[in-house]
Each structure stands twice: as structure tokens, then as C-alpha cells.
Amino acid sequence: MIENTKLTALVASRICHDMVEPMSAMIQGLEMIKGGDGKVDPDALSLLDHGVAKAWAKLEFFRFALAGALAEGDSTLEEGREVAHKLYSVLKPELKWSAPNIAMPRPAVRVIVNLLLIANECLPRGGTVELTGETGEVRVTAAGPRAKLRDTTAAALRGDAGELSGHTIQPTLTSLLARQGGVALSARDSEDAVVLIAR
Description:
The protein is an alpha+beta fold. The protein is 50% helix and 18% strand.
């Protein structure tokens, strides 16, 4: 069993890691405005806009995917759609939501939203992440150049993370959420595509 203090520290580390890039963009944009002799540089405004949008999308995602306040009860897959689309609006891959509005427990919705973040990390050069499914099974397919599921991520999803780190904490939490919600996870890795399956 993972110690709560270690788990909390690693989750905080992961969130901080994901927030560094958008915060850096905002700081750089502000510095450009301060040094602009009263003239507003369009590039500065673009950096600020991008940084704020990315920070807000990631915070909303983590609040939904990891926070415990809304963890229980019945829901539908559609509950995760808005937060997923907002997150993907600031990521490289394109998100295609092709699944019907399947009824499921809220913990299962959170598992699937977490799988969408894992799918993004399988696409270092961008591509397409598509969500498909039917009652009893949802598939997240990440397709693009050099699509690859890291061995450590695959192990973490199986519940065999080994030594936890900032890179494995999110798939480890996804695996824990899946077990708590009665969801079985599996993955298929082929050339230029990774398929994550939740049953």
C-alpha cells in the first residue's frame, strides 16, 4: 500500500510539473509588457493568453480527474467531455469524442478522463486521440508518429509501478481509481498507435 504522505507529495509534484510551462509563458509575457516602453507587444499578449488558457485547462482537469470531492455516485461518460475538450484545446493532439453517452459510476468517468491524459503522453509528435465505446467498454486510441506507451506507464496501469516517481504517479493513481471503481484496464501497443481499454 502506498503511503498517503508519499502519494500526496508525488501528486503535488506532478501538478507543479505540469503548471511550470504555462506559468513560464505568463511570466515571460508580463516581462515583455513591462519592458515595452508603454507599447503592448502582440507577442506578449499571445504568451499571456496561451499561458492562462493552458494553466486553467490543466487545473480544471486535475480538479476533476484527481480530486475526491466528486468521486462517488452515478454519472455518464458525458460528464468528462467538457474538461477533456478544454484540456486538449491546449495540447498537441486532436481529441475526437466518438463515444455515446454511456451510463457509468462517476469513478469510472474519472478513470477514462485520466486515460485521455495518458494517451496524450503517448504522442510526442502529436496526432489524434479518439474516444470510442459502448456499454461495458470504452477505448482511448492514441494514433500518431512514434506513438508509444512507456513501459513504466504500462506497469503502473497494471498496478505494478515499482518505485513511484513524478512520471508514474498519474498512471498509478489511474490504476488505483480503476480498482476502487471496479474498472479493468488493459492496453495494446502497435506501430503508431496505442489503445487503452477500460471495461
